[in-house]
Amino acid sequence: MILGMEIALLIFGIAALVRGKFSVGKDRKVTGWRARLLGLICLTPFPVAMTAGIVIGVVAALDGRGEPDYLVIAGVEVVIVVATCVIVALLGKAFYAQQRREEARPAFPGADGFGVDPGPPADPDNPYAPPRTRA
């Protein structure tokens, strides 16, 4: 089961890095740099698990044991993979909400029709002059 989760994280991570799109649910897609960041996070269990395995092996060797406890290594790997999945899910949800807010925000004040862009000042040499009104 953990191997399947790791393979899925690998596939989703590479796809998100290449395409710049990451699906976080039905009809919900994160795009751009946020999707690529999620893809990068999907790939983090591999170096983290390898580093943890090396540390556990070195500690076992320094304690005088011949081989490390494989149940500890498996447990650490389970924690790393599950934590990565939870982090990706939570960040994906937050990124999607942030992306929706940015898409709904007008490009400049007045672009939504509620405010009016006043335009440049009447006297371009005087920055304190009142703006021209457009007719």
Could you explain how this protein is built, in words?
There is one protein chain. Helix 2 (33-42) packs antiparallel against helix 4. This protein has one domain (2-104). The protein has a two-stranded antiparallel sheet. The chain is elongated and about 85 Å long. The protein has 4 helices and 2 strands; from the N terminus they run αββααα. The mean pLDDT is 85. With 135 residues, the protein is mainly alpha-helical. Strand 1 and strand 2 (28-31) form a beta hairpin. Residues 107-135 are annotated as: Disordered. Keywords: Membrane, Transmembrane, Transmembrane helix. Residues 118-135 have a biased composition (Pro residues).
Based on secondary structure, the structural category is: mainly alpha
Order of adjacent strands in the largest pleated sheet: 1-2
Note the total helix count. Answer: 4
Shape: elongated
Which stretches are poorly predicted, pLDDT < 50 over at least 5 residues? none
Topology, element by element:
Elements: H1 2-19, E1 21-25, E2 28-31, H2 33-42, H3 45-62, H4 70-104
Antiparallel strand pairs: 1-2
Helix pairs in contact: 1-2, 1-4, 2-4, 3-4
Brief synopsis:
The chain is mainly alpha-helical and 135 residues long. The protein has four helices and two strands; from the N terminus they run H-E-E-H-H-H.
Key traits:
4 helices; 135 residues; 60% helix; two-stranded antiparallel sheet; mainly alpha; 2 strands; single chain
